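pasting for ref
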Amino acid sequence: MSLPTVLLPELPALLVIADECHFGRAAERLNVSQSRVSQIVRRIEDVVGYRIFHRRPTVRLTGAGEMLANAARQAMDDLDSGLALAEDTAKGRLGIVRLGYAPVAMMTKLPRLLNAFHKRNPLVRLHLHTTYSMNLWSGFDAGQYDLIIGREKQVRRGFTSHLFVRDGLVAAVPEGDFDPSQEGLSIARLADRDFVASDDSIAPQWHRTIASIAHSEGFEPRITQRTNDWGATLALVASGLGVSIVSSTLAQIRFPGVAFIPLKGAHDVCSFWLARRDRPESAAVELLFSELSANSTVDE
């Protein structure tokens, strides 16, 4: 049964009358006169072309009236549900957010913040994609992501970048090579060592920062091994094939055979950046960006 659109304004009143099956009580609930209730019923019957109420000996729904009341109740329920979903969508509580992130970002406070956001907004589906920093902006340009968190900060028209987490550099060295209790290690003390490093193309800005620090101490790191993930890098360091410069965030883990020692002058030199388009695709994207920004490291 499809309801004529001209009846939509009458549906709330119809349901009250159907619930009461008494024109007087229905009039009281609707705060109208009893004659107005009779007019509403006659109008509905004129539109649908059949009687929906028996008047004698008592007011009661006809068989067709029961079907009509059920259809009206379903229509009102659907409208209420639709209005609630529309409000949730408008306020960002319903939608999809595609977040691209650099692998080590998951060792920051990001997982905790995403979990808290999900609990508050269970109707927002989070599509999480991990990839190297070099791919995040190209994926952004290709429309694959709504938000990204990576090492690269780019100042570009139409995009906003926000400092998410400050990060520094530490030396990853074989256990026993240096005293791990020392407050900091000068990178110059690694000048004669072989280095294990990730491919330059994976995080160009990251490598430029490390190279700049080494050049300031008068040497070029002697890279003898290349990897494409931090697990392989640390495994090679543990084996004694070289040392490496890694994120201080990564130093939170315990990796057998590897000691992490802070580098002097390398505190806060690398960071994670959160970026979005100035005109996000949906309110859900804006809501997640706002929450991540509010809980990020305060920018200078």
